[in-house]
Each structure stands twice: as structure tokens, then as C-alpha cells.
Amino acid sequence: MRFAVPANAPRRRLAAELTALPGVRDVVLAEEVGCVVFDHDVTKDADRTAVASVLAQQQSARDDEPGTPRVIPVIYDGEDLDEVARTIGRTRADVVALHSEAEYRVAMLGFLPGFAYLRGLPSELRLPRRAPRPRVPARSVAIAADYTGIYPFASPGGWHLLGRAPGFEAFGAGPAGAAALAIGDVVRFAPAPEEPLLPPPRQEPALASPSGVHLEITRAAGFALLVDAGRPGRMHDGVPPGGPLVRSAFEHANVLAGNEAGACALEISGTIEVTARGGSITIADDEGGAVTLRDGERHVVSTAGRARVRYLALEGGIDAPVILGGRGALLVAGIGRLFRRGDRLAPLVRSGETHPATAQTPALTDEPIAIMEGPDAALLPRGALVTEDFRVSAASDRTGTRLEGNMSLPAPASAKSTPMVMGAIELTPSGLIVFGPDHPTTGGYPVVAVVRSASLDRLFSRPIGAAVRFTFA
Description:
Elements: E1 2-4, H1 11-19, E2 24-29, E3 33-38, H2 45-59, E4 70-74, H3 81-88, H4 92-101, E5 104-109, E6 116-119, E7 133-136, E8 140-144, E9 147-150, E10 155-157, E11 160-164, E12 186-191, E13 214-227, H5 247-256, E14 265-277, E15 281-285, E16 290-293, E17 298-302, E18 310-314, E19 344-345, E20 369-373, E21 390-392, E22 400-404, E23 418-419, E24 424-428, E25 431-435, E26 442-443, E27 447-451, H6 456-460, E28 467-468, E29 470-472
Parallel strand pairs: 4-12, 20-29
Antiparallel strand pairs: 1-3, 2-3, 5-6, 5-12, 6-9, 7-10, 8-9, 8-11, 13-14, 13-19, 14-17, 14-18, 15-16, 15-18, 20-27, 21-22, 21-28, 22-25, 23-26, 24-25, 24-27
Helix pairs in contact: 1-2, 3-4
């Protein structure tokens, strides 16, 4: 459910009170628009009434207390620093002074997990975005439009790079990993004349080193990564919900293995061969049943053009560290990695409880995908989406499924960032993208439609090149 954010509302309090409403799974606030994600697909009248009540209370509330500014040391040696100085007709030192003497406030988080949009940039430094770079280094301090910010992880980006914040960590230590910057926080930057003395870089906890029975990956063609039930409830930190691409198939593999439906498992695109080591081990994949492999026996799981992804579960789940509240990979945040030949997977200690198999892998059919109108549906003629035959592009990934078709699309204009949800169909300069589990929590392109929750698995299970048709339902 989208809503207009009251101009003077205390944003931190607003997010907390919306999150506390019954049935709310996630909340994300952009500057002018907010979104509440409920556990159910169709927003009920009671949901709208509850959200409206919270918004009405916040309209007359005082703004969040500013608090003590967070001071972040910055080494101003960015590769765009001289170009920014030339563009605004000032010196390099002037740019550093302008940027570091201002006080900023976190307006929203998004784009990347932990990426804070800091408002308060001096008017002289407000420049349009530049041509995107394929890779911006982690901890780069940059400016664009009305904002400054710190790239928490290496990623593509089109902001002007002014320097580096070597000591900045987007999330705190520990499995929960609270975000370093939250909506409403006040930030100042302090020029650092030289590299500060930093603690040793944090290393992501490694997978358990098997000492007993385990699986070894003895062949890997394509990709495989860990997934679990996801990281719901963290979109306000810019952390996407994550989880499996095709949830019903993932849950089916787990319950066949006797696990809870959300236990950590392997998501596969391509072909993976695993071999039992150290004894017998029970596994299950979403298209077969459970099987017990004896020491040295092998099992192959392959998409082979039949499905976009497959799932392999171990009895007891896969042992992996909990990071930001989940065991699954989140590649955009540097959590986890793709598996390769020689990697080993160890099961967690079983509780002895078994779970009946209820979830089923979705059938691969040409049945139309159910959608509803998005907030920017007026940009396309009514019914245009349902008369076009699309195909799943090879450029698709867990962030978004890209659709290819012959429909003439209008050139979208980049706008102010708004909240994004899984299943949103975004109109971009390169075509239509249906956001997947690792989607950015905010975006600046129009959302012309949203895939119904019940149809997400049918869409995301279709292999590269498969046909896609939509229907309003």
C-alpha cells in the first residue's frame, strides 16, 4: 500500500508506528512516498484505516529530535573532485569546504543495503548524475542531484566521487547487524589529511568446515548460491526481502528433506553435481523425492532448459552463518558468493522433528501471469501489457526479470525515488523489469503494474527465452 508521506512528519517515529501495525511485513519510506507491505496480497479496508490513522497522528507531531551528529572522516581524493571544481567554477579546496562544512540528515535508505541518501547538500554542489561507472569502490563518498552519500559496497553508480570514508561500515557487527545510519540521523563529514588508523577489516564468517558427513560439489556449470526464507522487515535499512526466486519450489525441496519450509538450501541455475563424503546423507530436490546418498555416491540437479532455477536441500538444512538476520546470500551487499567445484556443504544439527510435504513445485505452463495496475499505469494504454507477447531475457537475475517484446514503450523519465516491492513492473530505458527478491528498495523509474503474489512463482520459474503473457486479475 502506497501513501503520501506527511511533509513535517517525524520520519523515524512514523516508520516505527507503521511497522507495529498488525499484518505488516515491511515498511519503506522515500522522501515523499511511503509503502507498507502487508502479509496479504490485497489491501483491506482495515489496513487503509490503520495506516490513515497513523499518518493523521504524525501530521501534527513534532519532527524527530536531531540528536548528536555522526562525524565521518573522509579522505577527499575522489576522481571527480577536480571536475566538480571546474564545473562550479571553484577550487578543489572550495569543494572540500562546501561539502564538509554542511550538516546532513538521512532522508531515506535504498539503492543498496545501508545506502543513506543525505539531504543538506549546498546548492553549489547540486549537479546532475554523470554517466554511470560499471564499478564504484566501496566506501566512496559521492554527490548527485540534492544528495550526498557513501556507497556501502562496490557497485555500478553514476554519482560524482569526492573521496573515501575508509572507516565507514554500513552495518554493525553481529548476526542482526543494525544499520549504521537510519532515517532522521544527522551526519557531518570531517576532512582526514591521511589514512586513519583503522581496525582490521571485518571478514564475512565462513561456512562451517565439515568435520563429519557432508556434501562436496564435484561439478558446477552455471551458478548456485544459498537461499533461506529471506530477510523480511529490513526494507527501511535498504535491505531487500531476499529469499528464494521460486518460493514454492524451494519449500517443496525442504519439506521433502524433512526440514522446515524456510531452511537454508541451494538455489541452482545450470548443473550441479554433489557427492556424499564422510558417511550417508539425506538430500532432496524440488523435482524428485528424498534420497539417501552413501559415502561416495553422487546426485545431479540441473535446470537443463526446463526451469529457471532448481533447489537442493539437505536433511537438517545447510549450515551457514547468520548475517543481517539471514543465512542466504545477498550478493549486492557482499554477503555470500556463488559456489564452485570443491566447495563443501555441511548440514545443521537436526532437531528430530519432521515436517509434512505440502508445498509443490509450480507447473511450467503458458498460463497468463496475473497483474494489477501500478501507480504509474497511465503511462501505458489500458490493456497494452495484456496484448503483448514477452519473453524472459537472458539478462535476468535475482534483482529483476527483464522482459523482451515488440511493444513500443515510451521513454521513461527518471523521477524522485519511490518505494519498490517484489513483483513491481518498472518501466526503464532498457525496457520492462519485474523486480525479484533482491530488488532495490527504492527506485526512480515508473511502476506501470505489479505481479500478483500468487503469480510470482509461475513467472520466476519460467526459463530464459520462455514466453510471458499478462492478464489483469
